[in-house]
Design goal:
alpha/beta, 8-stranded mixed β-sheet, globular, AB_hydrolase_fold, AB_hydrolase_1, EC 3.-.-.-, AB_hydrolase_sf
Length: 256
């Protein structure tokens, strides 16, 4: 799979499959593109594109401290480098912050927003604890954090090993910065500016982000919401069939 050059002679590594409507997948801190392992199946219907953000996986290191706005700008440059006019953005967890940021700063680049486990700000004690625990483990025992994330995302040992190996490539400083900025980021006031078709997917009681859906319901009355009961936060891997079906139906229904 190719490397593509964006600003500052920086290279991003990405995988691409299929043809048609482009969907770009934005991963959470540390995990890299491999967390979307099962979304490759969407290539049956779409052109699916999986970049590693800088400082992650096989991409170059970031050329300045990582932040939500930094990565949002990076994805816009990535879209331009691929000569794509508009793309569906799929943001998972904190990757959804990046997707949302692009949605209200560069809406001309976004045809649809698809968000799994989305939040406009870390809004509760559980979310704050998850972010702070992640940063603390990065400082003291990154190997344990990698193991926890791999185990929490799948029971498939082969995929666990794939996720583990990919996370080990991440630059710990950029990973930490991504967590840190996700913790302090807040776009609640900007939500009414998101006018493109929007799909939100959440888990049930074990998904700490579900309570954030109220912000979106209030500000984005046109958005569609799905909650997968008895599931946790890790829908792209643990509920990939339903996740992929929802994405397919939503994008095709709202494609003009």
């Amino acid at each position: 799979m190719p490397l593509i050059s964006i600003a500052s002679r920086k290279h991003l590594y990405y995988e691409e499959y299929g043809q048609g409507i482009p969907i770009i997948f934005i991963h959470p801190p540390g995990m890299g593109r491999k967390v979307f392992y099962y979304q490759c199946l969407l290539s049956e219907h779409f052109r699916v594109i999986f970049p590693d953000l800088s400082g992650h996986g096989d991409s170059d290191h970031a050329d300045q401290p990582a932040s939500i706005s930094y990565y949002a700008n990076e994805i816009v440059q990535f879209i331009d480098a691929l000569h794509i006019d508009k793309a569906v953005l799929f943001g998972y967890s904190a990757g959804g912050l990046i997707a949302q940021h692009i949605g209200f700063t560069r809406p001309d680049k976004v045809s649809h927003l698809v968000l799994s486990g989305a939040y406009p700000a870390v809004h509760n004690v559980i979310g704050e604890k998850i972010h702070k625990t992640g940063m603390n483990l990065l400082e003291k025992n990154a190997g344990l954090l990698i193991k926890i994330l791999a185990v929490s995302h799948t029971k498939n040992k082969e995929l666990r090993n794939l996720l583990t190996g990919h996370m080990k490539k991440a630059d710990l400083a950029h990973w930490h910065q991504y967590y840190q900025d996700s913790l302090r980021y807040n776009c609640i006031e900007q939500l009414p500016h998101l006018h493109m078709p929007m799909l939100f997917m959440y888990g049930g009681l074990r998904d700490w982000t579900f309570s954030a859906s109220g912000y979106y319901r209030k500000a984005c009355s046109h958005a569609e919401f799905f909650r997968l009961e008895y599931q946790g936060h890790q829908l792209p891997t643990k509920q990939y069939k339903t996740c992929n079906e929802l994405v397919t139906g939503f994008v095709l229904t709202h494609h003009s």
